[in-house]
């Protein structure tokens, strides 16, 4: 693939020494950079021909620090956590920030917007396309090799593809709640989500349909145990019908998602999960797989099979969580423990 | 409630002695009746005021035999199984028929169409309304007391309500895969199904939406293990998108359902599951509860709690089935065993 980086590099934004914001748990003076940009390049899509595509990125931390690429679910994006320069909330505040497991004082933390998240590609996407696009971004940014790729949910799928296709550019893969293939039952759930979106034809209807599809997605991310604890209340009357206890929560989740995500972006990213397939035997990069017993979308058995079939060093860490597939967004301490463990291994080698 | 039976009783349809159809496993000459009719009566709905309602019924077997009321899921109806008079396939051919666990030579087997299944009631329905409607039907048919009520899925919910509200008219309740209350996570699933239907406004769109909602319902009835065994194949291209392996199966299920079920009927019966609540302490009728370990819609723990809280004699039978909530439609031998066991108890008392 040919590479045409057009991203504008932003300058360093150091904290004034001795006057860090009081909310920072660690008060050593720190130089934290934050930069955003975008890369345009030509990418041969597996199922959609060669296209000019754009990937937007954000980076926090010193440019010469070891780089960790951090990838989340399909609704995640380049903005991992707030910084002085970009103070809005990010999608992984539990892990990314000063004093957290992914500390921008010591690491360069890179996030991207998914290929297709802007709704500009209405063709089948594949997780391999995402992995190849990331390789282009790394080229554009002059990053030869990642200290680690930490991917959760969709990010784990893309991480596995990256490890299989561009393993020489990666020292360690941490794949959380994502397997080498979609489970057939989970694919069926997603196919219904896409069928919901296809019910609608015009713009406003499509937005409403995406919201309802997201409600179903949210159910696949969570566990009955959590809902039993949170929503154990009788249905309440609303006009000529009744609403169940979880209904306003689900509606809120769906509406928030559909305000940010187009129908095309949703359909194509959802579809790409069902096109995902990686042969674990093609992954030689040291890999830590994290699975959650209560995850109904990515059964732990599939992650056991993945970890056991890796060509390189592999291990499986399993957690219990009421939050099922969404544990990576909720179980901050457990996830931080795994991240810290992964990054500490061979630290001397990195520093050398 | 006042009662206005208008159903026309059909006459007996005896088989010619000595010439039973060759497919019957038991060749003793048998007199099997089959009759259909409908009852109109005035029914005070819990949430919808007093209305003139209609219940259609079908009965197989001698009118003077012990009567067993047989109730299935929301898509079930009065036609349990084919008979000489009504030869089309019924919804429970695995259990109902000559030589089967529910044998119309020895029992009068009664089935009904659910209140609201005709789409004529666009108001909140409750399983208590269904139970009261059944009491009216029994009055109309001159049936003082049921030998048993065998209810599966929605039929189990209605059976529990009937046992709580009209216990004196029932000797034994067999409740398969239905609990005293909906699980909050299952209610959330159903709320999304109803949200899908509400996306559509006009007739054809509503039919399509019901079909997609049914696809989601089917997923809640089945298990990941079954799908892993049946649909473990890559997605295939269909025009500009890919379809997962289960997609045509789900579409078929949805389309078949939406051809027979109106949006209003679906919404109101689905909603009635979420309004369902029975205090197990109000059930004094001997009750056998059947649960399936793999049922994701009605967790076995809820059935354990139900069985343990009954005011009368109660017991729990648990099965393993790849078919989850739909086990009652698939595990013919295991279900037949439980039915036979329940009906054999106190047989002499019944015969006396």
Structural account:
Two copies of one chain form a homodimer. Chain A has 352 residues and is α/β, with parallel strands linked by helices. Residues 1-30 and 348-352 of chain A have low confidence and may be disordered. Chain A is built from eleven helices and eleven strands. A nine-stranded mixed sheet of chain A has the order 1-2-3-5-4-6-7-10-11, with helices on both faces. A two-stranded antiparallel sheet of chain A has the order 8-9. Helix content of chain A is 36%, strand content 18%. Chain A has helices spanning 127-141, 154-165, 184-198, 203-221, 224-230, 247-260, 263-275, 300-309, 327-330, 332-344, 347-351, and strands at 3-5, 34-45, 49-60, 67-71, 108-112, 148-152, 173-176, 236-238, 241-243, 287-292, 314-319. Chain A has two domains: 3-181 and 279-351, Rossmann fold, CATH 3.40.50.1820; 186-273, Orthogonal Bundle (Rna Polymerase Sigma Factor, Chain: A). In chain A, a hairpin with a 3-residue loop joins β2 and β3 (49-60). The longest helix of chain A is centred in the middle third of the chain and has 19 residues, at 203-221. Chains A and B meet through α3, α4, α5, β9 and α6 of A and α3, α4, α5, β9 and α6 of B.
């Amino acid at each position: 693939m040919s590479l045409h980086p057009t991203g504008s590099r932003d300058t360093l934004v150091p904290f004034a020494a001795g006057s860090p914001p009081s909310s920072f748990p660690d008060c050593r003076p720190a130089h934290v950079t934050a930069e955003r940009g975008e890369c345009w390049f030509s990418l041969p899509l597996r199922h959609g021909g060669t296209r000019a595509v754009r990937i937007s990125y954000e980076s926090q931390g010193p440019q010469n620090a070891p780089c960790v690429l951090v990838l989340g679910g399909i609704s995640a994006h380049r903005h991992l956590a707030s910084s002085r320069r970009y103070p809005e909330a990010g999608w992984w505040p539990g892990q990314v920030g000063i004093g957290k497991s992914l500390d921008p004082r010591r690491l360069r933390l890179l996030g991207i917007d998914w290929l297709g998240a802007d709704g500009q590609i209405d063709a089948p996407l594949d997780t391999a396309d995402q992995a190849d696009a990331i390789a282009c971004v790394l080229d554009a940014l002059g990053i030869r090799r990642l200290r680690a790729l930490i991917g959760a949910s969709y990010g784990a799928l893309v991480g596995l593809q990256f490890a299989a296709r561009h393993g020489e550019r990666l020292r360690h893969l941490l794949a959380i709640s994502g397997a080498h293939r979609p489970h057939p039952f989970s694919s069926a759930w997603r196919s219904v989500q896409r069928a919901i979106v296809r019910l609608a034809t015009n713009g406003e209807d499509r937005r409403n349909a995406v919201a309802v599809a997201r409600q179903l997605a949210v159910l696949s991310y969570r566990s009955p145990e959590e809902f039993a604890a949170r929503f154990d209340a009788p249905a309440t009357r609303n006009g000529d019908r009744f609403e169940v206890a979880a209904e306003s929560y689900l509606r809120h989740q769906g509406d928030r998602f559909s305000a940010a995500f187009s129908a095309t972006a949703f359909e194509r990213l959802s579809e790409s999960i069902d096109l995902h397939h990686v042969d674990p035997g093609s992954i030689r990069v040291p890999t830590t797989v994290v699975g959650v017993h209560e995850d109904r979308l990515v059964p732990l058995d599939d992650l056991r099979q993945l970890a056991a079939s890796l060509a390189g060093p592999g291990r499986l860490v399993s957690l219990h969580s009421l939050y099922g597939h969404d544990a990576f967004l909720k179980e901050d301490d457990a996830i931080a423990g795994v991240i810290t463990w992964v990054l500490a291994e061979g630290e001397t080698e990195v520093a050398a």
